[in-house]
Every structure is written in C-alpha cells, then in structure tokens.
Amino acid sequence: MRRALGLQEQSPTGERGPPVPANAGAAHPHRRHFVRDGEVPVTIVHRDNDNGPGNNKLDAARQALKEQTAAREQAEQLLQEARATIQDLQTKLAHERIARDESLRRLADERQIIEDELAAERARREQAEQARDEIVARHQRAETANPPRRRGRPAKISEPESEIVEWWVPGWKERLG
C-alpha cells in the first residue's frame, strides 16, 4: 500500500529502501492481516508547494479559469461602457444636427424677411424720388411762368399817355378797344 501511495522510505540520497512485505508478520503469506495501532508508521505529506503533480495542476487550472472569467467580465463591462458612450455620442450628434438645421432654417426665413423689407423700402424710395422729381419740375415750370418778385419797392408803372378820346368821331370804340 505504501508503494501504491508512493510513500516508501527514501534515503537522503533519493534511493528507496527495501520493500516491506504487506504481511510480514503473518504465518501464511496469502492470508489477510488487519493492522493494529502502532504497527504501521504514519507519514503526513503536505502538498502545498509545487511538488504535488496532480493537485497543483488542478489549482493552477482553477486559478487560470478565475483569471479568465474576471478578465471576461471586465471586458464585457468595458464593452457595455463603450456602447453606452457610443449611444450617448450619437444622441448628442443627432441633437447638434437638428439644432444646426433649425438654425439654418431660421436664418433663411430671417433673410427672406429682410430681402422683402429691402425690396419694399426700395419701392418706397423710388416713389419718393419720383414725387420729388415731379415737385421740382412743377416748381421750375412755375418759376418760368411767374418770374420771382423782386424785393423792395415795386417799380412805378407808367401810365400810358392818354389820348384824347374823340367820342364824337365815329369808330372811336374800335380804336380803343
């Protein structure tokens, strides 16, 4: 049994001692014999260090699995955060585009209003200029027809020398007429 468990005595040089028969104290070599307390020395073997071939491989596999699971969870969390960031940025971009389009529409509307007001102002200006030109023309015609009065005392109008009306002569009315 010690041989099956690998617990046979070893010398400090690493050599094994002579095999101990399982039923050394029995009269018949094939007969089973139950061990009593103290007949078999008990050896406690600790396998906490790297010397244990089976146990350490299992622990190493478990540790690697835990590390991979933790790394996967962290990667999934980072992926979720990246997706949330992408969604947030897409939403902000859409809002900015909507705001820009609205600003452009408002600007176009204001520009159209200003252009309409400018056209109306030009039309009013042309009408005012035409009215001014008409007034200037009328004024010039009036000045031409009626020369401006001179200031000061009016000139003496000389009375035409009166002719003697010969009323007794026939045709006098036609002559003065």
Could you list some keywords that capture this structure?
177 residues; mainly alpha; 0% strand
Question: Any overview of this molecule?
Answer:
The mean pLDDT is 81. The chain has helices at residues 2-5, 53-145, 172-176. Helices cover 58% and strands 0% of the residues. By secondary structure, the chain is mainly alpha-helical.
Low-confidence stretches: none
What is the beta-strand fraction?
under 5%
Oligomer: single chain
Estimated radius of gyration: 67 Å
> First CA to last CA: what distance?
179 Å
Can you give me a brief rundown of this structure?
This protein is mostly helical and 177 residues long.
Topology:
Layout: H1 2-5, H2 53-145, H3 172-176
